Amino acid sequence: MTTRDRQPIGRDYQLMVSALAEATARRDAEMGNAEHAYQESAAQAAGELSRAEGDAISADRWAGAAAAQVLDVDREAARLWDQLRRARGLRVRALGEMPEPVPVDAVPRAALPRSPESPQVKAPRALLARAAERIDHTIHPAGRRSLPRWALPLLPILGALVAALAGLVGSGLVTFGSTQVWGGPVLRALGWLAFLIAPSAGVPVAALVAHKRLQARLDIGGIGLTLLGGMIAATLMSLAFAAKH
């Protein structure tokens, strides 16, 4: 075989080597692209998995908080129901036992809370608070509440002022009735009657103020304090009036 005959074989060999090198380069490039795509997909999958785990943990915490809130709401509802059943003067026999809560399946999905800060979570507590306030007003109306402590020292002063005013009216009637006027004995009798009722004249005034202004009732202690102030003022007024006459 001559050199001329071997040239086509050498050229074909070079072409094959070049094609093999190009195929190897393409393979390496494709492998690099595939590796890069795999790394990106793995990183994205890891991120999605991490977010899914975070969502699962948040959902678990939210479920625990929701369960605790359900227990709190159930306890408060049971307490209010029992308090309403024990209320005196109310027709509570028709209430019966506490009704069971509505099943979750019967509640529209739009009404289900999405987070602990949702308005749907706060709504039951607000309703229970309003129900407790209404029950408290029904069982313990404003007119039956005791006076606040800060109002007790003011009762003797109020009783003394009203008694002094009644004593002044009585003194004026007695003085005016002692003159030579028509109906003098009647005026003097009214004056002495004013002196008689002066010590207790502050009690109805104190009761009215307590009911209208403080939404409370005047108990026996408040009546005693008001009478004490009225008696002291009436005694001083009587002594002063007797000294002048």
Overview of this protein structure:
The chain is mainly α and 245 residues long. The protein folds into two domains: 3-140; 145-244, no CATH class. Helices cover 73% and strands 0% of the residues. The chain is built from six helices and no strands. The chain has helices at residues 3-85, 119-139, 154-177, 184-197, 202-212, 220-244. Helix 1 (3-85) packs parallel to helix 2, helix 3 runs parallel beside helix 6 (220-244) and helix 5 runs antiparallel to helix 6. The mean pLDDT is 75.
Q: In summary, what is this structure?
A:
With 245 residues, the chain is mostly helical.
Pick out its properties.
single chain, 245 residues
Binned, the helix content reads: over 70%
Structural class: mainly alpha
SSE pattern, N- to C-terminal: HHHHHH
Number of helices: 6
Mean pLDDT: 75
Tell me the number of structural domains: 2
Low-confidence stretches: none
Strand-residue proportion:
under 5%
What is the makeup of the main sheet? none
Number of strands: 0
The end-to-end distance, rounded to whole angstroms, is 170 Å
Give the overall shape: rod-shaped
Task: Using the CA coordinates, give the radius of gyration.
Answer: 47 Å
